[in-house]
């Protein structure tokens, strides 16, 4: 996927006001409209200009796009950083009059159906409008928590930033900090609802809600799939061959794991119920990795030669390597 420089496409600076972006779009849209322009690539340029404007006219999309940084160049091979959109609070404006099906893979990856911008405008529910009262918009954000937060069910401080326009038409970020109770056993992709923490109501109407989508921070030991937790465990050749009892880290503390005799590298051993809690708790899977000691001394090399003779008939690569 190639990076698109939306500022370059519209011919504006990265600190352009919203009015400057609108004027640039209107000028280019007239110039490249397929019904007007005779240029061979007019239709493609018209779509490109429309895509750039769809992002830069919306303070929320623009702020998230700017978060990627200015070091990227148009046409450069690009993959968005993990959780690049975490910590932003969005109203979820969706699309306006644009036909998103004509937009690029770059746009779809950042702002498509699976991102925070796909939420329906206004956050869905509205209250009674009699007397000019209306319920506030629901807001959405993605937050990063630790596996331990989910395992234990902690209260933690979360900082969010919400894009807004200042009086001069520049995008600025308003920050706020919330204390959030993380439900025990919550998994990636689930949401925490904070009642009344969305947009303010109109005419005394109730405030909307804030929905926090949970993702996990990278962990130094564990990875997770659903409620199941995975740990790669290095073991020695003799532990694998002869069997052993070895201490293993879990989210609930260290436990002893029985490695069966004859264990193989890549073999998965299950610790039942040691994953994330829930109605049906997850398990922890320990993936064995046999690590061979280096032969850095004469005695060690001689030991490996004896081992080679002892297991002369053992050839794990037979039929694969052509031996």
Which sheet architecture does the biggest sheet show?
4 strands, mixed
Radius of gyration: 28 Å
Strand content: 15-25%
Shape: flat
CATH class of the domain at 222-310: Mainly Beta
Give me the count of strands: 12
Low-confidence stretches: 93-97, 120-129
Order of helices and strands: HHHHEHEHEEEEEEHEEEEH
Distance between the termini: 41 Å
CATH domain topology of the domain at 222-310: HSP40/DNAj peptide-binding domain
Helix content: 10-25%
Can you count the helices?
Answer: 8
The fourth-level CATH homologous superfamily of the domain at 222-310 is Urease metallochaperone UreE, N-terminal domain
Q: In what order do the strands lie side by side in the largest sheet? A: 1-2-6-5
């Amino acid at each position: 996927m190639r990076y698109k420089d939306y500022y370059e496409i519209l011919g504006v600076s990265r600190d352009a006001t919203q009015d400057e972006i609108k004027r640039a779009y209107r000028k280019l849209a007239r110039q490249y409209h397929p019904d007007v322009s005779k240029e061979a690539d007019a239709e493609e340029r018209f779509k490109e200009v429309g895509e750039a404007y769809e992002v830069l006219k919306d303070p929320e999309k623009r702020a998230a796009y700017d978060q990627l940084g200015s070091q990227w160049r148009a046409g450069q091979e690009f993959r968005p950083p993990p959780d690049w959109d975490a910590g932003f609070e969005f109203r979820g404006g969706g699309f306006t009059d644009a036909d998103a099906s004509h937009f690029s893979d770059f746009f779809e990856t950042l702002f498509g159906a699976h991102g925070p911008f796909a939420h329906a405008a206004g956050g869905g529910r509205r209250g009674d409008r009699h007397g000019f009262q209306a319920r506030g918009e629901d807001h959405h954000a993605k937050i990063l928590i630790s596996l331990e937060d989910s395992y234990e069910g902690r209260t933690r401080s979360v900082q969010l930033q919400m894009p807004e326009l200042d009086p001069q038409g520049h995008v600025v970020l308003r920050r706020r900090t919330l204390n959030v109770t993380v439900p025990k056993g919550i998994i990636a992709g689930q949401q925490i609802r904070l009642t009344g923490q969305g947009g303010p109501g109109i005419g005394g109407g109730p405030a909307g809600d804030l929905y926090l989508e949970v993702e996990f921070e990278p962990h130094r030991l564990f990875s997770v799939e659903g409620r199941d937790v995975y740990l790669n465990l290095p073991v020695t050749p003799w532990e694998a061959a002869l069997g052993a009892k070895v201490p293993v880290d879990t989210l609930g503390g260290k436990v002893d794991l029985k490695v069966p005799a004859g264990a193989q590298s890549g073999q998965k051993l299950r610790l039942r119920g040691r994953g994330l809690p829930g109605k049906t708790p997850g398990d922890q899977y320990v993936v064995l990795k046999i690590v061979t000691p280096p032969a850095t001394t004469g005695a060690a090399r001689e030991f490996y030669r004896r081992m080679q003779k002892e297991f002369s008939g053992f050839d794990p690569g037979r039929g694969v390597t052509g031996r």
